[in-house]
Design brief:
By secondary structure, the protein is an alpha+beta fold. It is globular. The N and C termini lie far apart (32 Å).
Length: 67
């Protein structure tokens, strides 16, 4: 599923921070971003920064910024 090193690192981050049974879907957005949907929650965008930090941004906040 995750092809780039960045995506694999985000995948490991998800495995370390969430119970895999609570993950409904993880979709690739870009080479360093994944849309994570947990059961019963709104989607969150996970972005791997160059310094290795993973930022979580609610998907709805991205659309608010674009308007």
């Amino acid at each position: 599923m995750f092809c780039t090193p960045e995506q694999r690192q985000i995948g490991r981050w998800i495995e370390n921070h969430y119970d895999i049974d609570k993950v409904q879907c993880a979709e690739i957005v870009t080479k360093n971003a994944v849309r994570l949907t947990l059961w019963g929650h709104e989607p969150t965008i996970l972005i791997l920064r160059q310094n290795g930090r993973v930022d979580q941004i609610p998907e709805a906040a991205l659309f608010e910024e674009a308007v």
